[in-house]
Design goal:
- The structure holds 3 protein chains of 3 kinds.
- Chain A is α/β, with parallel strands linked by helices.
- Chain A contains 3 helices and 7 strands, in the order αββαββββαβ.
- The N and C termini of chain A lie far apart (53 Å).
- Chain B is globular and about 55 Å long.
- Chain B has 5 helices and 4 strands, in the order αβαβαβαβα.
- Helices cover 33% and strands 11% of the residues of chain B.
- Chain B starts with 8 loop residues before the first helix and ends in an 18-residue tail after the last helix.
- Chain B is of the alpha/beta class.
- A 4-stranded parallel beta sheet of chain B has the order 1-2-3-4.
- Chain B has a single domain, classed as Rossmann fold, CATH 3.40.50.
- Chain C is of the alpha+beta class.
- Chain C has 2 domains: 304 residues, Cytochrome-c3 Hydrogenase, chain B, CATH 1.10.645.10; 71 residues, no CATH class.
- Helices cover 47% and strands 12% of the residues of chain C.
- Chain C is built from 20 helices and 10 strands.
- In chain C, the strands form 4 sheets. Chain C has a 3-stranded antiparallel beta sheet.
- In chain C, α4 runs antiparallel to α5 and α6 packs antiparallel against α11.
- The chains are: A alpha/beta, B alpha/beta, C alpha+beta.
- Chains in contact: A-B, A-C, B-C.
- At the B-C interface, α2 and α3 of B face α5 of C.
Chain lengths: 193, 168, 443
């Protein structure tokens, strides 16, 4: 199915669950509510209209500093005004970040028989960062969700072994969050550079 | 020792012979982690052949090795392992820091990477490069051989180089 | 005789281990020689690729992508550049597409050579390793001719590539392919019907195609189980839809099938390169000098600074040899025609004020490539499977989020499944055929 056709079919099937949808640059994207995620994913996997047999990727985006990159202060002391180049204009602009909530957990799905791709986004608040785990459906969710927990601190309900995978257990904090400084080291042994 | 206080003729010739023998029989422990490992493989294979320098037999156990080639980025998760491997090697031992990630951390200045293994273990030869060409590696190896040869047979390292005082 | 009491033994194949593939920790529980359970611990080479790419601009991420799958760096470069180009909505000239395909396939061959060579060495076939590294050296010399570096090339740019193919590339490439074919023939004779190799590789590390799909495994690993999924065929990008090649598919899903699939894929990659060299749109290999005598660019700038325009008005700027391939007449072939994205030719930067302004707007701190706000996902066929880049942009000059979907992450998560039931010695060929590249697994 084409991206638009896929979005239409999903919106027809799940009118309450699908909060928003778009096909920016040809990538079908739907934003679903957290409660309906497991049922939604199960339908995507098993229904013959969708047949999403590959869970390609699970990741997250921290939208807390979206669009807030500080303007460069390089010339500020000299009084020269730095006006960065304007953005490259867009015919069909992106609708924007998925909505309220600091994190968005992003799933990329692919169907080998029908050759279509879908991106599913679920919004999560910082205070209540928990989503249902998709490990009952796809085995690839296991390690990918562990990585999201490690890097962002989002819990997955029902995951068999939610421990750190890329960092060591003694590490405190979640590195890919926007409030974690890039060179804040926590060495196990040796000096802090 | 004779009356002038120098070591005798036989003793100094013996030290030279031991130095010569040691430098041409390097059993390295290649602690390979990342991309530099590919250039290490290229140096060890037919085109650039590290075997003609006597360093062609890697020993995959630290107890049997004398040179620790640390090849590739060391992360904080890996550092305790590196320390343990270093401690398991018996004297005389030398450490070669292969690739700029082990020398100073490379361009990975972040929460996960150690900015240079010399923060933890003493390094004898630094081979910078990202990754260093095999010719640089062989150059570093020749410098290592010169250092090994100059080292006393007793295992005592040559005196530490005095760094010049930094005057801003 | 009294009943012998047996217990299971815990064996730690620790992070520092003799296999040449990278640092990983496998804690295996053994019952005699059989592995009853295995736990895999990764993350020993985590270098923070995703966090670092938020601190540099879009072209500055390219050196970090080189070091992801460091045996096939050009595929990573091209994948990232194509993802950003999808976000920008621009397309590159046709010659540039063909150049990208040629260098990606060369990279794929080097990856498979390293994988098969290293796993053969671990089984004792040291000669095959030396032969394959010899072939890899020929290919690396070829890559060095085009990009300037052997391994960490940083050849792609957002909107094109760094420079055109040099003179004599055609012939050198054909010679390298010929040498590689000879090496593959020799390795085939040595390994494919070798009793020891076949015994150790057949029947070990088996996985069914359903389990492989559930784990998200793609690439030669999946194709060896019987599922014919290749991103170049099923979701074609660049000029792959115009090139003819076959996708080898195995049947049993064990180590031997993976070895055969990789050997055949190398042959298919060479076929693609030959077709691309034949079909590539021609470009002037030797730039026609326009009227004007050459002058070094630095000298031209100095004369212009003191206002001595008369001395430089009819001269042509000659740039440093490291900029070979990106000279002005070749520029339209390697770069998308989009001023906001690609740097101008150096002759323009030094020669006229528009070029200088164009260069300034792309290079100065605070300016640079600024894609529109949005998110894209772009998959390419990496050597291990589907390598996808998910990029989120907030309109600033550095990416907001770059996520790389690593193909060997999925394969490694299935490693316990692959080794349980096999003997301890079967861990070596299985782990070798997984082709775990630490830079890609841990990023």
């Amino acid at each position: 199915m084409t991206a638009a056709g896929l979005i239409q079919a999903l919106e027809d099937r799940f009118p309450q669950a699908v909060r928003a949808a778009h096909a920016y640059r040809g990538d079908a994207t739907v934003i679903v509510s957290r409660e309906s995620l497991l049922h939604f994913a199960r339908t995507l996997k098993e229904d013959p209209a969708f047949q999403m047999n590959f869970l390609m990727d699970v990741t997250a985006v921290d939208f807390s500093s979206f669009g807030k990159k500080p303007s460069p202060a390089f010339f500020a002391s000299s009084g020269v005004a730095v006006r960065p180049s304007p953005e490259i204009p867009d015919q069909e602009p992106w609708p924007g970040p998925p909505g309220p909530g600091r994190f968005a957990v992003v799933y990329h799905l692919f169907s080998l028989p029908l050759k279509h791709r879908l991106r599913v986004e679920v919004l999560v608040e910082e205070a209540d960062a928990e989503v249902d785990s998709l490990t009952p459906l796809w085995a690839s969710a296991d390690w990918l969700e562990r990585e999201v927990w490690d890097m962002f601190g989002i819990r997955f309900r029902g995951h068999p072994n939610l421990t750190r995978i890329l960092m060591y257990e003694e590490f405190v904090g979640h590195p890919l969050r926007k409030d974690y400084a890039v060179n804040k080291r926590q060495p196990l042994i040796g000096p802090v550079n | 020792m004779n009356m002038t206080g120098e070591a005798g003729f036989v003793a100094s010739r013996l030290e030279e012979a031991i130095g010569w023998a040691r430098k041409y029989s390097i059993f390295q422990y290649p602690f390979v982690t990342a991309c530099c490992g590919m250039e290490y493989m290229a140096t060890a294979c037919s085109h650039y052949d590290i075997d003609r320098f006597g360093a062609g037999l890697p020993r995959f156990s630290p107890r049997q090795a004398d040179v620790l080639f640390v090849v590739g980025t060391i992360s904080h998760k890996m550092l305790p392992v590196l320390k343990r491997i270093y401690d398991q090697m018996a004297e005389p031992k030398w450490v070669v820091s292969f690739g700029v990630c082990t020398c100073t951390g490379g361009f990975y200045d972040n929460y996960a990477t150690v900015m240079g293994i010399d923060t933890l273990i003493p390094v004898d030869i630094y081979i910078p490069g990202c990754p260093p060409r095999p010719e640089y590696v062989l150059d570093g190896l020749l410098k290592l051989q010169a250092k090994i040869e100059a080292q006393h047979a007793s295992g005592q390292r040559p005196a530490q180089e005095r760094r010049p005082e930094f005057v801003p | 005789m009294a009943e012998l009491e047996t217990r299971e033994m815990l064996l730690n194949v620790g992070p520092a281990h003799p296999a040449m593939h990278g640092i990983i920790r496998i804690v295996a529980t053994l019952d005699g020689e059989r592995i009853t359970s295995a736990e895999v611990e990764i993350g020993y080479l985590h270098r923070g690729f995703e966090k670092m790419s938020e601190t540099v601009d879009y072209n500055g991420v390219i050196p970090y992508t080189d070091r992801l799958n460091y045996v096939s760096p050009l595929i990573n470069n091209m994948g990232y550049c194509m993802a950003v180009e999808k976000l920008l909505g621009i397309s590159v000239p046709e010659r540039c597409d063909y150049i990208r395909v040629i260098v990606s396939e060369i990279s794929r061959i080097t990856d498979h050579l390293t994988c098969v060579g290293a796993s053969a060495m671990e089984l004792g076939a040291f000669t095959v390793f030396l032969y394959m590294i010899k072939a890899r050296e020929f290919l690396w010399e070829l890559v060095e001719m085009v990009t300037g570096a052997r391994l960490t090339v940083s050849y792609g740019r957002v909107g094109g590539v760094k420079g055109d193919l040099p003179e004599g590339f055609d012939e050198q490439c054909r010679k390298a392919i010929q040498e590689t074919r000879k090496v593959l023939d020799e390795s085939n004779t040595l390994l494919t019907r070798n009793r020891i190799f076949v015994d150790r590789m057949s029947g070990t590390g088996k996985i069914s195609s359903d389990a492989a799909v559930s784990y998200g495994i793609t690439g030669p690993f999946l194709r060896a189980t019987g599922v014919a999924y290749d991103v170049r065929k099923d979701c074609p990008y660049s000029v792959y839809d115009r090139l003819q090649f076959d996708v080898p598919v195995g049947t049993r899903g064990d180590n031997f099938d993976r070895y055969l699939v990789r050997m055949e894929e190398m042959e298919q990659s060479m076929r693609i390169i030959e077709q691309a060299l034949r079909d590539i749109p021609p470009g002037p290999i030797q730039a026609n000098p326009e009227t004007g005598r050459p002058i070094p660019a630095a000298e031209m700038v100095d004369q212009a600074k003191v206002g001595n325009i008369a001395a430089i008005i009819d001269r042509r700027a000659v740039t440093d040899p490291t900029l070979d391939g990106s000279a002005k007449p070749l520029h339209h072939q390697i770069a998308a025609d989009e001023k906001r994205v690609f740097l101008p030719a150096k002759e323009d930067t030094y020669g006229n004020i528009e070029g200088l302004m164009h260069h300034f707007k792309l290079v100065m701190y605070g300016h640079g490539v600024r894609p529109p706000k949005g998110e894209v996902y772009f998959p390419v066929e990496g050597a291990n499977g589907e390598l996808g880049f998910y990029i989120v942009s907030d309109g600033a000059n550095s990416p907001y989020r770059v996520r790389v979907r690593p193909p060997c992450f999925a394969i490694m998560s299935a490693l316990p499944r692959l080794v349980i039931g096999d003997m301890m010695a079967d861990l070596t060929p299985t782990f070798g055929s997984v082709n775990m590249i630490g830079g890609e697994l841990d990023r």
